[in-house]
Specification:
The structure holds 2 protein chains of 2 kinds. By secondary structure, chain A is of the alpha/beta class. Helix content of chain A is 62%, strand content 11%. In chain A, 46% of the residues are buried. Chain B is of the alpha/beta class. In chain B, the strands form 2 sheets. A 6-stranded mixed beta sheet of chain B has the order 6-7-8-3-9-10, sandwiched between helices. The model of chain B has no long low-confidence stretch (mean pLDDT 89). Classes of the chains: A alpha/beta, B alpha/beta. Chains A and B meet through α5 and α6 of A and α2 and α4 of B.
Chain lengths: 520, 263
């Protein structure tokens, strides 16, 4: 056989970590869901009003989009964590496992609750009467007659919940939980379709395997082969414990590096990780975090360092609408971060990743457009494409107001599709990222901003309050400051996101470091 | 005739399911002698099933006393009580996830008998209820209606109860099977010296099986007496009409077989 495609080899290399985390998360959520749902269902069977309230609540939860539910748990847990710190001095991590676990547990509850209630209520009245008649206590009747007879219906619910949880767990990646979703989110961002497919297939196979295991488990209980059922239960518990402990085995990582969900962030996180490693510091990376999640995680100390952009902090967190020069923005932002949150800005990396409006050259020429004010006049006839965040961000509102932009249509899409869409003429303009290699690759025209309505977006390295006094950490990262030019960054970004000859972020980071004169 | 020792005494039993708005039992006082076979008859809603279930506390009387011998059953543990009383009902309620043998032995298991002792007793009960021993490992779903009823009786008899409560026990089977089951049960009743209270709406069945018949209506005891007395000399018109039914049916059948046909 010929050698494996390098992307498959890379996907396989990450499988133990992603799959392990996914299994532990799903199993824990399912176990917790069962632990809550079964007693609740038993109560609900006896109390019609409680039954109505429980099933309605569970149904409503089910209708909340899973990604939103996962995201909502992060601020909730963060607040709880801060409360816990105030009350006991101890703080727990609100990032990753806990919010995912709670959201997935809630998701698993409806099918388990509904099927348990349906199953128990469907047990023949004659069997229940006979159970009491032969002298069973109500508990004996429940355990020896009602639950065994309701078992097939209950297990059907557990199996539905299992499939639901395993599928939804792929969405826990943006709140910082490693899962098979890492393949999908990263793959979507870097046009690595093998990763996307790998993630989907792995999740589907896992769901099938779990379904088979549960079916086997049901069979054992139904056959009342108690020793084997207990053995299977103990086995599941061991997997859970082993999986739960695995992150703590091996060499413990000292630092957590955060990355948002696009290629440049993967490269920079890998670069930070390599710089730390070069000085003997160990770190792990949490990728694909949302913009708000990652900043709050830094403030709470769940993430120790990440790269953000000055304009993002300026408009979204400082709520400023003026657009002074790069230096003033950097200076004021740095002081504000320190004062408000105790966050240290180690410094700018040397390049900007700004929002720019980009068009195909021939389309711009046909419309006679060179800058945003010229675009504004034509905008009622044009469609613009943007990422998921931009149209809701204050920068966009400011830009629209400054130039009187009024597009016929605003379309949100994944950045990779956005560049394709403008190249194919599906939209007339896009809100591109100035450091994205595809601007050059597709030969797009970036429009000038004569009114300077778009703030500067210097890439800046931020350090959490708890690491602010960590001299070794700062010393390891200092060499990155002011080092990276926009050209080098574009090259690296293109390297990880182009369709042909793609390289993983780690390799792009190494090449980038060499290219900027950092050596091996 | 049975000995005059009272096995079951019901004293002024009242039962309301709706907090006193209406009553399913309205002050029923009734004794059942040891070894006696008593039938409770009456229309639907007459309170006969409620009365029967009050004896093993599947229904808790609102007021009144139920005594077995000298023991007030309303004071003790209802679960222990039910393990000493056999109970057979129309729904049978064989546990579909247990084998026939496990169904028959269920009360014995609850009482903590050893496996070997249970197996021996189950074999005895299969013989006693005239079921082939091969049925032991089968599942209830594979049995005929008549076989199921016999398993239900065997299960009720497992812990050697002195008292059997039966609620339309043979209601769900065809008339021929039903007749055989009823005769076999009456023989068991005599052989084992049981005290049986049986609810039925079939007057013929009551007349053919019971030593004594109690007639209920609207939660009240209309009349109670030896079967022959009730047939020959009922005090109330409604009881007379009820008790006359078997005879009227028999006369019609006889007329038919004589070849003259109904007029």
């Amino acid at each position: 056989m010929s050698a494996l495609d390098p992307r498959i080899a890379e996907a396989l290399a990450r499988l133990p970590e992603y799959l392990g985390a996914h299994v532990v998360l799903s199993l824990s959520a399912l176990a917790l869901g069962l632990a809550f749902s079964l007693p609740l269902a038993l109560l609900a069977v006896r109390a019609p009003r409680l039954r109505w309230a429980l099933l309605t609540t569970a149904s409503v939860i089910q209708t909340i989009p899973s990604l939103a539910l996962l995201a909502l748990f992060y601020p909730l847990l963060l607040a709880l964590s801060l409360l816990a710190k105030a009350a006991t001095g101890a703080q727990f991590s609100a990032l990753g496992f806990l919010p995912s676990l709670l959201a997935l547990t809630l998701y698993s509850m409806l099918p388990i609750l509904r099927n348990t209630v349906t199953g128990l209520m469907g047990v023949e009245a004659a069997a229940k009467e006979a159970a009491l008649g032969v002298g069973m206590t109500p508990l004996q009747s429940l355990l020896q007659v009602e639950l065994p007879l309701a078992l097939p219906v209950i297990m059907a619910g557990v199996r539905t919940a299992s499939a639901l949880v395993i599928g939804t767990a792929t969405l826990s990646t943006p709140v910082g939980q490693t899962s098979l979703g890492n393949y999908i989110f990263t793959g979507l961002q870097t046009q690595n379709w093998i990763f996307v497919l790998f993630g989907c297939v792995a999740a589907a196979l896992l769901a099938l395997a779990a379904d088979g295991l549960l079916a086997g488990f049901e069979h054992l209980i139904a056959r009342r082969s108690r020793p084997r059922a207990i053995a299977a239960g103990v086995g599941l518990l061991l997997i859970l414990v082993a999986g739960g402990l695995s992150p703590f085995l091996g060499s413990p990582a000292q630092y957590v590096i955060g990355a948002k969900g696009f290629p440049e962030q993967y490269v920079l996180a890998a670069l930070i990780d390599q710089r730390l490693g070069a000085t003997g510091l160990k770190s792990v990376t949490r990728s694909n975090l949302g913009s708000a999640v990652i900043f709050n995680a830094l403030v709470a100390g769940d993430v120790d360092a990440y790269v953000d952009y000055s304009g993002t902090i300026w408009t979204n967190f400082m709520h400023r609408s003026d657009t002074p020069s790069r230096d003033i923005v950097l200076r004021e932002m740095s002081a504000w971060l320190k004062q408000t949150y105790g966050v240290t800005m180690l410094g700018p990396l040397g390049f900007e990743n700004a929002y720019v409006l980009a068009m195909r050259r021939d389309r711009a020429a046909a419309l006679g457009i060179h800058s945003i004010d010229e675009l504004a006049a034509a905008s009622p006839r044009l469609a613009v494409g943007g990422d998921y965040e931009i149209f809701a961000r204050p920068e966009w509102q400011a830009l629209r107001k400054a130039y009187g932009l009024a597009f016929r249509q605003e379309r949100q899409m994944q950045p990779i599709f956005m560049y394709k869409a403008v190249a194919d003429g599906e939209v007339d303009a896009i809100t591109a990222f100035s450091s994205d290699g595809r601007i050059a690759e597709l030969d797009l025209l970036t429009l000038g901003d004569p009114k300077q309505a778009i703030p500067p977006y210097d890439a800046v390295l931020l350090i959490s309050p708890q690491r602010s006094a960590d001299a070794a950490f700062a010393a390891a990262l200092k060499p990155l400051i002011g080092r990276i030019s926009i050209l080098r960054m574009r090259e690296a970004n293109l390297l990880v996101s182009r369709e042909e000859g793609q390289a993983p972020p780690e390799e792009a980071a190494r090449r980038l470091w060499q290219a900027v004169g950092g050596g091996q | 005739m049975p000995a005059q020792f009272q096995a079951i005494e019901i004293k002024d039993a009242w039962k309301s399911y709706d907090g006193g708005a209406s009553f399913a039992l309205r002050g029923i006082t009734l004794n059942v002698a040891s070894g006696e076979f008593l039938a409770l008859i009456g229309t639907s809603g007459s309170g006969k099933t409620t009365l029967l279930k009050s004896i093993n506390r599947l229904v808790e009387p609102t007021r009144g006393g139920i005594f077995l011998g000298n023991e007030d059953v309303t004071l003790g543990d209802p679960v222990q009580l039910r393990r000493r009383i056999g109970y057979v009902f129309q729904g049978i309620g064989l546990f579909p996830h247990l084998t026939v043998a496990e169904n028959i032995g269920v009360t014995l298991r609850l009482l903590g008998w050893t496996k070997a002792a249970i197996a021996t007793r189950v074999a005895e009960l299969l013989d006693l209820t005239r079921l082939p021993r091969e049925l032991g490992p089968r599942m209830p779903a594979t049995l005929s209606g008549g076989q199921s009823q016999r398993v239900g009786v065997a299960r009720a008899l497992a812990a050697k109860p002195r008292i059997m409560l039966m609620d339309e026990p043979f209601g769900a089977v065809d008339p021929i099977t039903r007749d055989g089951l009823a005769k076999d049960y009456r023989a068991l009743h005599d052989e084992l010296g049981l005290t049986t209270v049986m609810v039925t709406h079939d007057v013929v069945e009551a007349v053919l099986l019971a030593d004594r018949i109690a007639v209920l209506e609207g939660g009240e005891l209309l009349e109670c007496g030896p079967t022959k007395d009730l047939l020959a000399n009922p005090k109330r018109q409604s009881v007379r009409e009820l008790m006359d039914m078997p005879r009227r049916q028999a006369e019609r059948v006889r007329a038919l077989t004589a070849g003259s046909g109904p007029k």
